[in-house]
Amino acid sequence: EAGVTQFPSHSVIEKGQTVTLRCDPISGHDNLYWYRRVMGKEIKFLLHFVKESKQDESGMPNNRFLAERTGGTYSTLKVQPAELEDSGVYFCASSRASNYGYTFGSGTRLTVV
Amino acid sequence: AQSVTQLDSQVPVFEEAPVELRCNYSSSVSVYLFWYVQYPNQGLQLLLKYLSGSTLVKSINGFEAEFNKSQTSFHLRKPSVHISDTAEYFCAVSESDGNNRKLIWGLGTSLAVNP
Fold this sequence. Notes:
The structure holds 2 protein chains of 2 kinds. Chain A is built from no helices and 11 strands. By secondary structure, chain A is mostly beta strands. Chain A starts with a strand and ends with a strand. The radius of gyration of chain B is 14 Å and the shape is globular.
C-alpha cells in the first residue's frame, strides 16, 4: 500500500506569509495526526483527526494554525501569518481505528525567514 | 502528565560494538512504549513497541528493548551495530487506556556508527 505522503517536502517563506502543508494518509486510515519538531526540541503533538472530526487539538500552538480534513481523506495545515518560531519539521501520521500501527510521512521542513 | 527523558543526545560507537540508548518515562497512568528511528533524509519509522505481554520486545534488525515498570525505563539495545544503524532514535509513550493515542516524545538520541 502507498505510504503517508506529505507536500511540500521543504518550504521557505517570509515572516507574515501564509503556508499550507498537505498530508495524504494511507487509504482507509481514519486516524490522522499532526506533529511538529522545532529544532533542538522534542517532537510535539499538534492535533488528531478521526475521519473529518477533530478528536484532540490540544497541541495547536495558537489561532494562526488551522487544520482541516474535509471528507475525511487528506488534511491540510495552514499557518497564517507565519512567524519565525513556526520553523520546524511538520510530521503527519495515520492509523486504522483499532490498529496501533502509526505510519509517518517524511515530513515538511518549514523555514520562516 | 507524561514525559520522556532520553539521557544521551549523541552516542558515538564503533561498528560491531554493542550499544544501549536509554529512555526513562514518567506517567501517572499505564502507558504504551515505542522506539522510532529516523534515518538521514527519511521519515520516522516504528522500530519496536511494547503494548502488553512479554516485557522484552525485538525488532527485525536486531534491536531489542525491555520494559521495566519499577524503573520506568524502556532502554534500547543492540549487541553489534552496523554502519547502517546510523540514525536518530526517538523514545515515545502514549496512554494505554481510553482513546487518547497521542505520543509524548523524548528529545531523541543521535547514534553515529563509525568504521
